[in-house]
Amino acid sequence: MRIDVLTLFPQMFDGPMTESMLWKARDRGLLDLHLHDIRQWTTDKHRTADDIPYGGGGGMIMKPEPVASSIEAVLEGAPPGTPVLLMTPQGRVFSHQIAKELAGYERLVFLCGRYEGIDDRVRQLLITDELSIGDYVLTGGELPAMVMIDALVRHIPGVLGAEGAADADSHADGILEGPHFTRPVEFRGLRVPQVLQDGDHGKIKRWRRQEGLRRTWQNRPDLLMKAPLTEEEQYLLATFVDEIDR
Ligand code: ADE
Predict the structure, then answer these.
(1) Angle between helices 142-153 and 20-27 (to 10 degrees)
(2) Which pLDDT score is estimated for 95?
């Protein structure tokens, strides 16, 4: 997959995009990441990328010409229907499902805004989707773009060790994962649950599902409203609810 990122601060991506899993994905040719400085497409000698807002008010607005030209330049040669994603706190909230969906494209374009925002005509003319990482405002779209790229790259086949590992993640089927343990078997008086040591894969699978449901009930009960649960899972859930009510 090829990803083009349009930003006024390409250096911000240096650390996160050159370490660990992201670097491995790039090294293996699974992720072809191109960072572009939007100032490249400015035309005046001061390389001006922003201007004051019409109608007054504080802050500066990113000018439409360089931003639009940068999008058009990176889209050259991209397949029709390539998503052009605007990072904005006004967008749909990013999720596991959106990460998975984006990982299916051959190419993606991420546009990172700064200052008070980007001239809205760029959004009207060239943006296909507006995405947010949560209901809070950051100083720019660079961190959101990095968060989304990290989350979606995990869904590209071959990036994670075990094929399909991302499908076992928390949120993959609407509920959280249960707890994980490694050696030693006892740590400061706490033992690894016996079922995980016994090696009965059927029992381990059931236990993990049960503990995932328990965590979801405790930490994110809102998720349970939407999760598709089997009859057995609904029964397990009812037992936790009883335990807590008692
Ligand atoms: N830019 C500023 N805040 C943001 C957010 N929460 N999500 C995406 N882009 C942003």
Answers:
(1) 70
(2) 97
